[in-house]
Amino acid sequence: MLHRRILCRFSFRPIFIVLLALSLGGVFILKEYDDSVSVSQKYNENFKDFEAPRKPDKEEHLDVGRESKKKRENLIIVTHGRSGSTFIGNIFNHHPNVFYLFEPYQTVERLHGAVATGDRDYQGEAFEWMKGILQCDFVSTKHVQDLERYYRRRYRKNYNPIKSISLLSPPFCPYNTTHSSWSAESCPPMDKETLEATCKSKYNITVLKPLIGRMPNENVKQLLSVCDNDRINCKFLFLVRDPRGIIPSSRAFGFFKDDDDSLLGTHEWSKKICSATEINLNFFRSMSSDEKKRFMLLRYEDLAKDPLKTLPSLLKFAGLPDDKNLRKWLDLASHRPETESERKAAAWRQDSWEGAERWRWLVASDVISVIEKYCSHVMSVLGYKAVGGSHDLQKNLTVKLLEDSYEALRWF
Ligand SMILES: *[C@@H]1O[C@H](CO)[C@@H](O)[C@H](O)[C@H]1NC(C)=O
Ligand SMILES: *[C@@H]1O[C@H](CO)[C@@H](O)[C@H](O)[C@H]1NC(C)=O
Ligand SMILES: *[C@@H]1O[C@H](CO)[C@@H](O)[C@H](O)[C@H]1NC(C)=O
């Protein structure tokens, strides 16, 4: 019933939604081999262009759920743009056990040339690249040069969340990034062999932050098939955010354009983002409790409100120990500096909760009404209270619009 309604409302790319839905469904289907052979076969059909998922043998089947030591651990942050994923990715970037890469699909995009994500060559190259990265294999010298250029050299400032700290630390640089003698200039170019050896030996988990919008066909289907490999373990952190925060921010970032009178872009983006979120949620909901262990749902606002309080659950999910320096960094990164000189020294410090709530005073209430029109159901499932056109509710910051208890919480 719900699906029908969403598909009808979703006017421009129904196929995308169906594929996204199928792919998320596939996550649990892939593990429940015996119970859902027919669905599983149907699912496999979708992958035959890439690589047929391996048939599990009996012994392996008994092993399902047990951790295999030789598998590379990966955590993949799945989200729409403008949902706080750069901030969350950067938290993992600062953990000493983590090999972090910001938006790995951008490498494919740059090497291939930007094309629609449905392009077959793009998809083939994306498959090869992701399959490599998820086991510390960096495919070719060209790929390594791209990482060199974009995640080590491009940004000269002291601080940039796009930089990968692991690529800027020993053995690639003489000093740790926190050391006063560290500089980008002191770091010679990386070579592929050292990169692969370091990824494997110094870091026991890879964390990636791919946006849904750059995935082949704009869904996680291919990524799930990449993860279905006996050398790779993947966990998925599904990050959601209040659509009233996502959509105006996407517009400000030029993800879409709006005509001030009709707000056509806002109409379409609200439909697109909220339909996709809702369908994903329904698939998470229908997973077996065992499968759900590989997934975590996180509301960006819960993190933004009190990052240090949320941190332990993120680390526990990833299988990472607490880290004192990470906590110290996070405390600074999520609070605005108090003095002007502090602010000059650390322009990257922002109040994370203020950022999450900014839409309440910056966005016109007719825009909020359009978003609520398309998103009210998914908002209520995720505990985001609608303002229903009330200017007072929207602008009065003492009114809480985030429910502590919400339906989707009970699905995990
Ligand atoms: C970098 O920091 C780690 C701990 O975070 C430490 O073990 C290591 O010795 C440091 N390396 C250098 C070159 O300072
Ligand atoms: C990585 O290594 C650390 C330190 O030895 C350990 O505490 C943690 O559980 C390991 N994590 C994973 C995901 O293997
Ligand atoms: C804002 O909301 C609070 C709590 O509902 C209320 O007590 C207060 O009067 C409101 N402030 C304004 C300026 O409307």
UniProtKB/TrEMBL annotation:
Q: Which Pfam families match?
A: Sulfotransfer_3
What keywords sit in the KW lines?
Membrane, Transmembrane, Transmembrane helix
Q: Which InterPro entries match?
A: Gal/GlcNAc/GalNAc_ST, P-loop_NTPase
Q: Which segments cross the bilayer?
A: 12-30
Query: What Gene3D superfamilies does this protein's entry cite?
Result: P-loop containing nucleotide triphosphate hydrolases
Protein name in UniProt: Sulfotransferase
What species is this protein from? Porites lobata
Phylogenetic classification of the source organism: Eukaryota, Metazoa, Cnidaria, Anthozoa, Hexacorallia
